[in-house]
């Protein structure tokens, strides 16, 4: 049907700090896709102290990956919900080839085939700099950066007007190093997995957020 032809089911790949969350916001604004971030889902589960949240916390606070099966189950439950009408962005999943294989099963069972995989490429030294400068609004979770994205009015969240900010536990320097190492190991095999399927586009994530989105938009607008 027409509707299915217009569906965009996208994976955003990129190491921690590559700008997946930042790009997702802009993609959602234009394409109305459902944003599914496993990191956000785990942080919510941790805040609510659910069983999954408590299990995830022991991994996340050290910068390690939550086990593949736990993560894949969460994603399958989310993708099964009826609100995903115009397609989805997977942000932060898959991040191992095992997860990529599990996702193949999920998209087949749910009849929601992937249409695009976009990898944001950023050098490691830039990632370290970005992550240590990132801070979040305590109230709404909006993301800022001491170097590149300060609130328009100092000390006030642009999105919700909140005045309290915090640094993510896993953005502290001793955790960032391990996070990058853990994710770097899986990065090339994951890109190869989708390159072999003919789905992969690589984009330079060191450009301004506006330019990064322009490049993404050029890929996605071809789908419609
Ligand atoms: P998650 O929350 O997904 O963290 P991540 O992958 O490490 O990604 P980030 O959110 O840190 O970075 P981002 O790419 O979204 O960058 P952002 O746009 O914020 O996961 C957290 C943890 O959960 C994992 O470590 C793991 O333990 C667990 N987990 C999650 N998914 C899992 C899975 N599938 N399997 C197992 N475990 C899993 O940008 C970063 C900063 O840079 C911001 O301050 C931003 O303002 C700035 N910035 C962004 N773009 C630009 C730009 N173009 N120029 C300048 N600055 C920029």
What does this structure look like?
This protein has a single domain (2-123, 175-223), classed as P-loop containing nucleotide triphosphate hydrolases (Rossmann fold), CATH 3.40.50. It is α/β, with parallel strands linked by helices and 224 residues long. It has helices at residues 2-6, 20-31, 38-47, 51-60, 68-79, 97-110, 124-133, 173-196, 209-220, and strands at 8-13, 34-37, 87-91, 116-121, 134-137, 143-145, 165-166, 200-204. The radius of gyration is 17 Å and the shape is globular. Helix 2 packs across helix 9, helix 3 (38-47) crosses helix 4 (51-60) and helix 7 (124-133) crosses helix 8. The site of BIS(adenosine)-5'-pentaphosphate has 35 residues, from helix 2, helix 3, helix 4, strand 6 and helix 9.
Helix content: 40-55%
Strand order of the largest sheet: 2-3-1-4-8
- The average pLDDT score comes to 95
Total strands: 8
Distance between the termini: 13 Å
Beta-strand content estimate: 15-25%
Bound molecules: BIS(adenosine)-5'-pentaphosphate
Order of helices and strands: HEHEHHHEHEHEEEHEH
- Cα gyration radius (Å): 17 Å
Name the shape in a single word: globular
């Amino acid at each position: 049907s027409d509707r299915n032809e217009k569906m965009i089911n996208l994976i955003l790949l990129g190491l921690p700090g590559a700008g997946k969350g930042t790009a997702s916001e802009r993609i959602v604004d234009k394409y109305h896709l459902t944003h599914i971030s496993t990191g956000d889902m785990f942080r919510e589960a941790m805040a609510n102290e659910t069983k999954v949240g408590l299990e995830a916390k022991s991994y996340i606070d050290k910068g390690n990956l939550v086990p593949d099966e736990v993560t894949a189950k969460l994603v399958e439950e989310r993708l099964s919900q009826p609100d995903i009408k115009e397609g989805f962005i997977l942000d932060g999943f898959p991040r191992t080839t095992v997860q990529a294989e599990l996702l193949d099963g999920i998209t087949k069972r749910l009849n929601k085939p992937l249409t695009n995989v976009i990898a944001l490429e950023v050098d490691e030294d830039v990632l370290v700099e970005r992550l240590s400068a990132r801070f979040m609004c305590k109230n709404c979770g909006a993301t800022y950066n001491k170097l590149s994205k300060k609130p328009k009015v100092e000390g006030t969240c642009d999105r919700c007007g909140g005045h309290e900010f915090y640094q993510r536990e896993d953005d502290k320097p001793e955790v960032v190093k391990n996070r990058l190492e853990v994710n770097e190991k899986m990065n090339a095999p994951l890109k190869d997995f989708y390159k072999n399927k003919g789905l992969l586009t690589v984009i330079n994530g060191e450009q301004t957020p506006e330019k990064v989105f322009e490049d993404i938009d050029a890929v996605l607008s071809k789908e419609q």
